[in-house]
């Protein structure tokens, strides 16, 4: 595999030497593009000796550019990997800035991009950096790490470059064939809204982001994707076929109609468990009634019906819980009969409903079949859910 290794200027740049060695040991061809600042931390000679290739860093070098142009470098790569990626390089990538050789090559390449951040914990946690990482992830860039621990700057926390072994694995995965090619992934997402009268609805706080992330990642991994979306304000991910619905009954009909085409089903929607028995035909008036009673009837259980009607599809459900999360999720898995259930603690405001990050546990039927996914972007969580679903499919 041809790997373009970008190194940006942080203390973790010294670890890039070990990374080059591991990549070449595994038979990969490595061309290093280092920023000027990276070369303050690690010498071009070391990187050149380890990679067996001249190290490039200058967009305007007559010799470098005549040997191999920045566009040739961009076209050459099977995967572009930046390790370490500093906050500054991440910001430039997120903004599409091309003001040095590394960022120019990243803008020009069509190869998948893997970014391994490393920086001070406060820089990492800064909303600007988090927003930039989210923007990159949404664009399909794979973010590896960082790890938490003692940092070179003396602080403790997230910001350590992840182990080179994990970076190599991420680069190899990124350059591999799309893992969901040939699959048809059916996803439901968002809330449902049950009419009370012509202007009011019963709904919930789901934004649709988790389900949309699953749809987007599945499409990026080569699947054909059918997305049944409740009322949300999100753009349709690239390459995804979207069916908009409002009520649980409509969602059920759309999901069941798409089911025969699907090979893998992920039901992330927050479906209203009840609907108003007889929505009023005209707006309910405030005057006159001190108190009103809405009679609710139970909605269909879409997940249960999907499980009952499936013909070989792997089915993944979610469990949004506020207490005894794991126990309740496991019970739900049993009741619904799906292959996996993604337990989501929605009592925590920083994850779950209407935020960009999530932290879940993927529970399977076996006693020890529990996979904890630490806090990450919903796109990263989506990757792990789809990865796990694919394992089940292959088992
Ligand atoms: O949309 P976001 O803002 O990104 O938030 C994401 C999320 C919190 C909504 C998502 O991660 C999540 O947890 N979705 C499931 C929400 C839910 O309704 O869970 P539940 O435990 O009530 O339902 C269990 C499962 O049955 C879910 O797969 C649900 O889609 C399904 N279900 C529920 C009721 C119903 N009538 N039909 C169903 O199919």
How would you explain this protein's 3D organization?
By secondary structure, the protein is of the alpha/beta class. The protein has 2 domains: 2-175, Flavin prenyltransferase-like (Rossmann fold, 3-Layer(aba) Sandwich); 184-393, Rossmann fold (3-Layer(aba) Sandwich), CATH 3.40.50.10300. Helices cover 36% and strands 25% of the residues. It has 15 helices and 19 strands. β18 (357-363) and β19 (370-377) form a beta hairpin. The chain is elongated and about 80 Å long. The model has no long low-confidence stretch (mean pLDDT 93). Ligand PMT binds next to α11, α13 and β16.
Which labels suit this protein?
395 residues; alpha/beta; Rossmann fold; eight-stranded mixed beta sheet; binds ligand PMT
Number of domains: 2
| Radius of gyration over C-alpha positions, nearest whole angstrom | 24 Å
Structural class: alpha/beta
CATH H-tier superfamily of the largest domain: CoaB-like
End-to-end C-alpha gap: 28 Å
What's the helix count? 15
What is the CATH architecture annotation of the largest domain? 3-Layer(aba) Sandwich
What is the number of strand segments?
A: 19
Average of the residue pLDDT scores: 93
Helix content: 25-40%
Shape: elongated
Bound ligands, each once: ligand PMT
What is CATH's topology name of the largest domain? Answer: Rossmann fold
Percentage of residues in DSSP E strands: 15-25%
Any idea of the CATH class of the largest domain?
Alpha Beta
The strands making up the biggest β-sheet line up spatially as 12-11-8-13-16-17-18-19
Uncertain ranges: none
What can be said about the biggest beta sheet? 8 strands, mixed
